[in-house]
Specification:
The protein is mostly helical. The protein has one domain (13-135). The protein has three helices and no strands. Helix 1 crosses helix 2 and helix 2 packs antiparallel against helix 3 (97-135). The protein is globular.
Length: 136
Amino acid sequence: MLRTLSTNQSTDPQHAAVSGHLAQQGEALRNAANLLHGQTGEARVLRIMSDLRTTTKLKLATRRRLVNLHRMISLDPLFGDPETDAGPWQFLDPGSREVEDICLLAEGLFALLVEIGKLDDKMDVFALAVHDQDAA
C-alpha cells in the first residue's frame, strides 16, 4: 500500500493540486501505468510521487513527467510507437472496464494539467501586478 501524499507542506498551489490529485488517484494511476507499460510505467508514477514528497514546489521536471504520464496512459502516439511497442496494453479488450477506468484517469490527469496551466496564468498576473506596484 502506498503512503498518501500530504498537501499541507506545499508552498505553491500547483504542488498542492498535484499532491492532492495523486493522493486520491495515485494508486489507480500506478496500476494503470503497470497494466499498460509494465514495471517501467509504474516506475514513472512512483517517480512523480517521490518528487512530490521531496519538494514543496512543483518543479519543471515533475511537470514534464506528468505530461509524459498523460501521454503514456492515453496511448498518445507521440509517447511511443504502438506498432512497435509490444506492451501489455495490446491484450486489453477496448470494451473492458479497465480501459474505461484508464480513460477516466487520463481525463482526470488532463484536467489537472489544465488546472496547473491556469494557476500559471494567475501567478503571472499577480507577478505583473506586484511589478507595477513596485514601479509606481
